[in-house]
Amino acid sequence: MTWTTTRRRALILCIALALFLLSLTLVACASRTGASNAGNSNISTSSSQTAPATGSSGDSNSSSIQSINQQVQNAVQNIDGAQNDTNNADATATSEGGPPQQP
Predict the structure, then answer these.
(1) Cα–Cα distance measured from residue 70 to residue 46, given in angstroms and rounded to the nearest whole number
(2) Where are the alpha helices (DSSP H) in 1-103?
């Protein structure tokens, strides 16, 4: 490789690193802002419940964020349920005579 190619790669690596650090900083700032608003809503424990509105009724951003929040909570609850089902199936199979058979 020539000196120019090596320098160009180093420059690209530095730019990529700077962009990565910038993105981490933006995520940290966004999560800190989101954490300050976390006390304004109740976390639902059932997939049929919805989070109460915290903003004004005409605020579409608030309602869309709450909708996304509820979808994420539902997905996490579904994953938790699937993990519990798997753990129960493993425990049942072990107590009945060994590890589960792979099909």
Answers:
(1) 10
(2) 3-36, 60-95
- Return the biggest CA–CA distance within the chain: 68
| 36: Cα separation from own chain's centroid | 18
Cβ contacts of 78 within 8 Å, gap of 6 or more:
47
Whether pTM > 0.70 for this model: the answer is no
Angle CA(56)–CA(57)–CA(63) in degrees, nearest 5?
90
DSSP for residue 103: -
pLDDT band at 7 (very low <50, low <70, confident <90, very high): very high
Tell me the two tokens of residue 77. Answer: 């609850």
